[in-house]
Amino acid sequence: MAEILAQDDALETACRLLAEGEPVALPTETVYGLAADATNGEAVARIFEAKGRPRFNPLIAHVADLAMAERIAIFSPLARRLAEAFWPGPLTLVLTHREGSGVHPLVTAGLATIALRCPRGFAGEVIKRFGRPLAAPSANVSGRITCTTAEAVNAALGDRIRLIVDGGPAPVGVESTIVKVAEDGLFLLRPGGLAAEEIEKVAGAPLKRGEKSVQAPGMLASHYAPRAKMRLNVTEVEPGEALLAFGSRRAKGAEKAARMLNLSPSGDLREAASNLFSYLSALDAAGGATIAAEPIPGEGLGEAINDRLARAAAPRDTDGRVT
């Protein structure tokens, strides 16, 4: 079973295990990540093994600062401006991979691009001390609900890894926003913890949408999935369903729900994002066959919340794969 250490006591142990090629669960401002040395192929393979993750799904390489990132990828002036504005923080940039970067090909899944992020807090301290980039997808079983607490990570992966660092609940609560910076524009590959409008304001250009091929984490059609089936944008709750509520107005029949959790009674999208995965997990644990989700506005962080819910509700077989 995994050892769980408070982040104030975990820096040296985490770095030692990473140097040994072991994956370590780390808190970030977005969600908990399962980190390993991005330059060590065997270490990266252990991430895939622990998560049961498809190897065609690329990973994000996490860096300590812009200088480390520029040794790994080619930054255009626009990419550099975005990094300077939002790093450290919940923005991942997909850029052309620099030849000879040292990052193992398993991280990029054979693509000519690489996804880079500079995290805040303890994860950033680990990377700075370790001196190499860390590949770090979310610390959960692949395709299942993302973990935002050390306790959730332990329940999902505690028998598969050696260390979980406890930094308390992740403050943002959804994964980073992923933007591809290309010659023909900016592409929103995954909405996340940084609103698209904020990125567009700094970029001075709109984000294009509609990319379908898997170019970054979180782009599989079925992802973030509970074991229960999901119904979205419900206006009426069926007897026995669990209800994922939002705001002050309830769907018809809400009183019949087996259990109800409200992402934000006041309708605050930031609060809703921070509660999303923990509430989905709690409703899933209640044992009902279906989770019904009330409508959530699509602007700002609502775009990321609706993206996660849509992927959680996608048709899948018993292994979590799209059917």
From TrEMBL:
<feature type="binding site">
    <location>
        <position position="176"/>
    </location>
    <ligand>
        <name>L-threonine</name>
    </ligand>
</feature>
<feature type="binding site">
    <location>
        <position position="53"/>
    </location>
    <ligand>
        <name>ATP</name>
    </ligand>
</feature>
<keyword id="KW-0963">Cytoplasm</keyword>
<keyword id="KW-0548">Nucleotidyltransferase</keyword>
<dbReference type="GO" id="GO:0005524">
    <property type="term" value="F:ATP binding"/>
</dbReference>
<dbReference type="GO" id="GO:0061710">
    <property type="term" value="F:L-threonylcarbamoyladenylate synthase"/>
</dbReference>
<comment type="function">
    <text>Required for the formation of a threonylcarbamoyl group on adenosine at position 37 (t(6)A37) in tRNAs that read codons beginning with adenine.</text>
</comment>
<feature type="binding site">
    <location>
        <position position="138"/>
    </location>
    <ligand>
        <name>ATP</name>
    </ligand>
</feature>
<dbReference type="InterPro" id="IPR017945">
    <property type="entry name" value="DHBP_synth_RibB-like_a/b_dom"/>
</dbReference>
<dbReference type="Pfam" id="PF03481">
    <property type="entry name" value="Sua5_C"/>
</dbReference>
<keyword id="KW-0067">ATP-binding</keyword>
<dbReference type="GO" id="GO:0005737">
    <property type="term" value="C:cytoplasm"/>
</dbReference>
<dbReference type="InterPro" id="IPR006070">
    <property type="entry name" value="Sua5-like_dom"/>
</dbReference>
<dbReference type="InterPro" id="IPR038385">
    <property type="entry name" value="Sua5/YwlC_C"/>
</dbReference>
<feature type="binding site">
    <location>
        <position position="62"/>
    </location>
    <ligand>
        <name>L-threonine</name>
    </ligand>
</feature>
<feature type="binding site">
    <location>
        <position position="136"/>
    </location>
    <ligand>
        <name>L-threonine</name>
    </ligand>
</feature>
<dbReference type="GO" id="GO:0000049">
    <property type="term" value="F:tRNA binding"/>
</dbReference>
<dbReference type="InterPro" id="IPR010923">
    <property type="entry name" value="T(6)A37_SUA5"/>
</dbReference>
<keyword id="KW-0547">Nucleotide-binding</keyword>
<dbReference type="Pfam" id="PF01300">
    <property type="entry name" value="Sua5_yciO_yrdC"/>
</dbReference>
<feature type="binding site">
    <location>
        <position position="30"/>
    </location>
    <ligand>
        <name>L-threonine</name>
    </ligand>
</feature>
<feature type="domain" description="YrdC-like">
    <location>
        <begin position="8"/>
        <end position="194"/>
    </location>
</feature>
<feature type="binding site">
    <location>
        <position position="113"/>
    </location>
    <ligand>
        <name>ATP</name>
    </ligand>
</feature>
<protein>
    <recommendedName>
        <fullName>Threonylcarbamoyl-AMP synthase</fullName>
        <ecNumber>2.7.7.87</ecNumber>
    </recommendedName>
</protein>
<dbReference type="GO" id="GO:0006450">
    <property type="term" value="P:regulation of translational fidelity"/>
</dbReference>
<comment type="similarity">
    <text>Belongs to the SUA5 family.</text>
</comment>
<dbReference type="GO" id="GO:0003725">
    <property type="term" value="F:double-stranded RNA binding"/>
</dbReference>
<feature type="binding site">
    <location>
        <position position="224"/>
    </location>
    <ligand>
        <name>ATP</name>
    </ligand>
</feature>
<dbReference type="GO" id="GO:0008033">
    <property type="term" value="P:tRNA processing"/>
</dbReference>
<feature type="binding site">
    <location>
        <position position="190"/>
    </location>
    <ligand>
        <name>ATP</name>
    </ligand>
</feature>
<dbReference type="InterPro" id="IPR050156">
    <property type="entry name" value="TC-AMP_synthase_SUA5"/>
</dbReference>
<feature type="binding site">
    <location>
        <position position="57"/>
    </location>
    <ligand>
        <name>ATP</name>
    </ligand>
</feature>
<keyword id="KW-0819">tRNA processing</keyword>
<feature type="binding site">
    <location>
        <position position="117"/>
    </location>
    <ligand>
        <name>L-threonine</name>
    </ligand>
</feature>
<keyword id="KW-0808">Transferase</keyword>
<dbReference type="InterPro" id="IPR005145">
    <property type="entry name" value="Sua5_C"/>
</dbReference>
